[in-house]
Amino acid sequence: xxxxxxGEAYRIIRKKSMYLxxxxxxxxxxxxxxxxxxTGNADTQILQDAEVLSSFFPAVVGxxxxxxxxxxxxxxKNLGTLIGFGxxxxxxxxxxxxxxxxxxxxxxxxxxxxxxxxxxxxxxxIPSSAWQVLYAWAAKSFLETLAFSAVxxxxxxxxxxxxxxxxxxxxxxxxxxxxxMSALLNWDMISSVLPGLxxxxxxxxSFRVMxxxxxxxxxxxxxxxxxxxxxAAAALSVLAFRKKELEF
Amino acid sequence: MxxxxxxxxxxxxxGDFTALGGVSLTLRQGDIYxxxxxxxxxxxxxxxxxxxxxxxxxxxxxxxxxHHGLNAARRxxxxxxxxxFFPYLGPRQSLEYLCHVKGVRAKGEVDxxxxxxxxxxxxxxxxxxxxxxxxxxxIAGSLLGRPPIVVLDEPINGLDPQGIADxxxxxxxxxxxxxxTFIISSHILSELDLVATRFGFxxxxxxxxxxxxxxxxxxxxKSLVIEVDDGQKAAAALKACLGDPDLILDGNxxxxxxxxxxxxxxxxxxxxxxxxxxxxxxxxxxLEEYFIRLxxxxxxx
Lengths: 248, 301
Known about the structure:
Chain A has helices spanning 2-12, 16-36, 42-75, 78-84, 89-121, 128-159, 162-173, 176-185, 188-191, 202-215, 220-243. By secondary structure, chain A is mainly α. The model of chain A has no long low-confidence stretch (mean pLDDT 86). The longest helix of chain B has 18 residues, at 161-178.
């Protein structure tokens, strides 16, 4: 699997569009910071930025990573190459999650540093206590990206259509499915029998993890729920992949 | 010769449709096996089952000695079913990606292959490649790491005449220099005829016939076609003159498969026997004609 992971890392870092895509977002943020330089309190503004940005980081950052890691394979018909080389389907599913984990950790680890650097560049400064909050927001986005990728992978492997996989990911990352599920779980008929289910949706779990990081008292429960989510999604992906024949 | 790949009664069904109907095929070390069949005959399905891209309904695939698991054994096979690479990677990057994935560490392997398929120095990404360039890169990918078995599905599709000649050279060189065993499908049979040492004819999912190159040429050998006003009398006259000629009588048409070097004697014999000689012409059955005749029998049946 290590060979495969190195190979994937090799190709992803050679994807020129990745640099253009993230470069454009970085430039827009720098422009924003430049335009408001000296107009407000940089300490609070950077935290507001982190909060606002983290609501669409899973879609904007995670979406690109999902496409690069999962749907590029379908478009390039690369799964056939891997399986023809004797790589097991379960191994591919797990390797992909490891890639999201690695690239997600790298990107979401760098984002707070970038926010700090951008604000510092234009005269701002942030107190050391703010780092914890910045990284808590980044961790929330990272956890959501990994979980949404794991769930969308079921569609990727089950249908083997890049578009369906990408749409599923974006519906999850933009919170549309979460809102629908939340409305459904809060419906009287369901909530009277199984109350409080909506807080076990991914958005609720990741929020509880974030609060745990900020308050420095991480409860075990959301972490366990999170792992169950990802493990169940991975297991379903393997089943879907084994059931579906590769298409050329 | 060692058996490198063997299928036994390999069957693949999609609902009521039988894509492969119990194909038993043996690939021996050093073979260049030409799998001949029309579009939809089952060639790609066969390759997919061998490579694990489709699960056979029944039957068995054995690769190498059969001591390892099938997935591990598949690492001995390089293949190109359709050239599949990431659109944003150039040829060197595409092969380097495969080197990482396949764990190929040999220095200079990428350069060797790019040189071999004529893509050295090409910088543009795969998405900007012509069909011929894609095929060339696909073939290079299949040869990466010098696998003992190489599976090529329609490798010369989209290649220009020079490209076809180049790829033929590549296949023959890899076979003779590295002992690489090939199984190649193509519907350009004249081209396959120039490289293959054995042939398998597949139609409607059935492997109808397996022959060596020498046997095939025996089957498609030259003949003389003679058309006269009385076939029986002509056959008798030829037997009297030529001893025991190898001939087939088809009404007033006689097909002579021996004594091809003496048409003058044959013409003279027939004229002296008082026969009306309408046609005396050499004929060679091409591989295409043989194949069409073979599958024609199936269709008629």
